[in-house]
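Anyone able to model this chain together with adenosine-5'-monophosphate-propyl ester?
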Amino acid sequence: MAAQPSDSKLDALLREDRVFSPSPAFAASANAGDPGIYARAERDPDAFWEEQAAALRWMAPYMHVLEGEVPAVRWFAGGRLNVADNCVDRHCEGPRRNKAAILWVGETGETRTITYHQLRRDVARCANALKALGVGRGDRVAIYMGVVPEAAVAMLACTRIGAPHTVVFGGFSAEALRERMADAECKVLITQDGAHRRGRVVPLLDNAAQAVRGAPSVQKVLVLRRIGDPALRAALPPGMAVDWEEAVAGASPDCPCEPMDAEDMLYILYTSGTTGKPKGIVHTTAGYLVGVSATCRLTFDLKEEDVYWCTADVGWVTGHSYVVYGPLCNGATTVMYEGAPDYPARDRHWKIIDELGVSIYYTAPTAIRTFMRWGDEEPARADLRSLRVLGSVGEPINPEAWMWYHEHVGRGRCPIVDTWWQTETGMIMITPLPGLVPTKPGSATRPFPGVQAAVVDENGAPVGAGAGGNLVLTRPWPAMTRTIFRDDERFVRQYWSRYPGCYLTGDGARVDADGYFWLMGRVDDVLNVSGHRLSTYEIESALVDHPQVAEAAVIGRFDELKGQAVAAFVTLKEASDVSGAAAAPLRDELKAHVTKKIGPIARPEDVFFTVELPKTRSGKIMRRLLRDIAEGRALGDTTTLADPAVVQRLKEQYEEGD
Ligand code: PRX
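re: yes, here you go
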């Protein structure tokens, strides 16, 4: 690994005042080279968003850009439009008709090019197939798939007929899928027999078959054959399975786009919070599309000839906004890659960039750190000259990784956009605009035009330059979530109550003297493991669900590659003996139990057995102290503990090794 902090050249580069100005060549050709954009948006944000809304095709004009008071705001009220019409149909009416909409690369080596014309037909057919299964406007459809073109087709088909989708990441377990489908009361589930991942098959249909048994609203399951193994087809209850090939390929390619109200629900996406079950984040039609379309175009300096690759899975918000809706709304070519970055070898991403001529590459810091570990030679061997803009998302990017990305992938000439946002924000909120905003390694720089953010203290007062505080968003933005599905009260409590009129992000941040934002991670109990958002509460609930576990406390401890790793402190019921050799099998069993309940992404890295957990006098587990222990730090303030000796003992035990 070249970029070690000990490297003196790097040290010099990493000084906080190190600023990378856009190269004149880039700045001269960049679309975003619109120096007035920030001032214009600040003077009149509504006019700025109106300008962005003009890029869409409306079926009926809106009356007002923004109305109402937060959180009950309405964007583009009265307007009518359809997302599939904007992302697909309108591009078929002009020269983009035969342009590649999706370039798909299968893990096992096949590639597919789907033009806008073909995509329109596929989407319309799928929409008709859904209608034939009884799906109508307002009915929810669950999508549990891997990164295959049909996942995008399914999403767009739902939007075409006004059926909100809820995509569930294929790495979630049957139980997680069931819980989400039951909450959203989905009528139909779209899945595939299995997904290829790192040379293995993820049994999506098996999971789906288990999940539908506890989700009574689901009437039919549309199954795409990706693997083609008949053994993967058995499990669904009789009469439920509908074969994608038969239902979709046989359907008519004509299906009108439903005129949707600006504020009609577009989709629900579940995400983890600090307490309770996953939250069904609701996004609505017009504001979301205006927001993702504008941010995708300006943040990545998207141009007609770009080949744009966002490596996210469609199961996450990044996949929704920046694999599917953002690029397609702009008529871009979006790359979808099905598999793992190291399958069959560690140069897979670089080969894809080379072979497809990818010009915009958007990935997560955890991937960048993994590439760093794999060595400089991998990207060095590849031809990466097609690249022009690099993006980062999902967690704070450490300056070392930023510099490595800059030097070894961007070869010193591609601007890096570090984009901060969330499932709830729907769109990128803090990011540089390439060609316009000088960057500093590790900083997401400044709010997107039309977005207003601040860092405030406990009382809501802005903190001074360089001081840490809570990141809040002080003005509504078009792609903001409108509510938590069927839980308006939780929505208001969670996001809008702490500071009146402001949206609470849950992230800590500071702003430097130049007005640049530096994100510092979550300030609540939400974990970020490899850019995946997980809740301590859900993992703890999964552990406590095991018959031998009495109590569990989960924390994210620092991990060089993943950002955070899940560490669990567990107390057992009295009868359990886990001394010595008995500990290892139980540890494995608990890890497997979490995998079963939530999915492999939540599997704890460490499970530590203890007789007691450190608690405050009111009985609240002090996770902060557990983090100190797991990261080998001196213990923080222990004065509020019911029994400070507990944590001291725990620390000693932990250091001795279980
Ligand atoms: O903590 C922030 C972190 O990811 C959280 C949002 O997670 P999720 O809703 O799953 O969406 C991830 C993709 C948008 C945020 O609260 N996060 C995301 N991007 C960044 C980030 N932290 C720092 N820098 C970023 N660029």
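Confidence is low (pLDDT under 50) at residues 1-6.
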